[in-house]
Specification:
The complex is a heterodimer of chains A (162) and B (149).
Chain A lengths: L4 H10 L9 H9 L3 H13 L3 E8 L8 E9 L4 H9 L4 E6 L11 E7 L2 H15 L3 E15 L10
Helix pairs in contact in A: 2-3
Chain B lengths: L4 H10 L9 H9 L3 H13 L3 E8 L7 E7 L6 H9 L4 E7 L5 E7 L2 H15 L4 E3 L3 E2 L9
Antiparallel strand pairs in B: 2-4, 2-5, 3-4
Helix pairs in contact in B: 2-3
Classes of the chains: A alpha+beta (162), B alpha+beta (149).
């Protein structure tokens, strides 16, 4: 999908969040010089085509006690990775789930799923749940825990060239 | 901050989604059995206390423009801090984590175009003398992640 300058302005205006006021869309529309109905239609269109994944609250999972997480990685049969990846992604303790290329011989894994829990023991138990879903379609797996954040900058909308 | 049952209900409900309607908070408040003013003041309090990281639309990063790629390197422990400094100096390196594996450095490259991903990875390889493995996403799966509040 191509985003026009108005869509991009809407993304820029809302990427840090919606205002906590009675009529948030009307306020954003006013700020951008748009009609509220037009803004809402554009946001619905972006939601329908996947540019907006969803409009929701992201709780701070650390504040809610989910302090352990691990990047679980799996070597899954290529013919079944689409179906099984979807099932793993649907699990409520998985926050990211991607199929990625293997890097043989160093790296045999093609399915990446970030698992969150309240402790490392719980993360290991949840990892076993994922293993049970993958069954014999999985030839091997590992889990990588982060030991240090080396850099963290937000992903922001980049200016379009030209 | 201590969360009560109403706060938890708000968090659990608003993780599922938020309507695009003229008075969305009123609509949600009605569904929760509280007033719009109560919903707004609780959301503000939870945001200020950083119980809520973010409230609003979540965008598909690629749809917003630019290219992204997860990368990994196997960095010798004794050179680790020097290599971190070298890699982090690239503005294209968005996040970087040390992880428990022979491939012990994992970062995301964010660039304007797909072609720049390979270019930057190659520059990092040349500067560090360490192979950069690229793990671009082939397929992204729908996420059911929810935090039970």
């Amino acid at each position: 999908m191509t985003l026009d300058p108005t869509d991009r302005a809407i993304i820029t205006a809302t990427q840090s969040g919606l205002p906590l006021v009675s009529r948030p869309y009307a306020q954003i529309a006013t700020d951008l010089g748009l009609d509220e109905g037009d803004l809402c239609n554009r946001m619905r269109a972006m939601q329908a085509n996947g540019v907006i994944r969803r409009i929701a609250v992201a709780p701070n999972h650390y504040a809610l006690g989910m302090t352990a997480n691990g990047m679980s990685v799996w070597d899954v049969d290529d013919n079944r990775v689409a179906e099984l990846g979807q099932r793993v992604g649907n699990l409520e303790f998985v926050s990211h789930c991607y199929e990625r290329p293997r890097a043989l011989p160093d790296w045999p894994y093609n399915l990446f799923a970030m698992i969150h829990g309240t402790s490392c023991d719980q993360v290991e138990a949840l990892r076993a749940d994922v293993a049970a879903i993958l069954g014999d379609a999985c030839r091997g797996n590992d889990i990588l825990y982060s030991t240090r954040i080396l850099k963290k900058t937000g992903l922001r909308l980049r200016r379009q060239k030209g | 901050m201590t969360l009560d049952d109403t706060d938890r209900l708000i968090l659990n409900t608003l993780q599922e989604g938020f309507p695009i309607t003229p008075n969305p908070f009123e609509d949600v408040a009605l569904q929760l059995g509280i007033t719009e003013a109560q919903l707004l003041s609780r959301l503000k309090a939870m945001k200020e206390a950083r119980v809520i990281t973010r409230f609003g639309p979540f965008f598909d990063a690629a749809a917003m423009g630019g290219a992204f790629c997860l990368c990994a390197m196997s960095v010798p422990e004794r050179a680790f801090d020097d290599i971190v400094a070298t890699v982090n100096a690239y503005p294209e390196v968005a996040h970087n984590y040390q992880r428990t594996h022979d491939l012990n450095m994992w970062f995301v490259l964010a660039t304007e175009t797909e072609a720049e991903i390979a270019e930057v990875a190659h520059e990092i390889e040349s500067e560090t003398g360490i192979k950069v493995l690229l793990f671009p996403k082939l397929q992204e799966f729908f996420i059911g992640f929810r935090v039970a509040a």
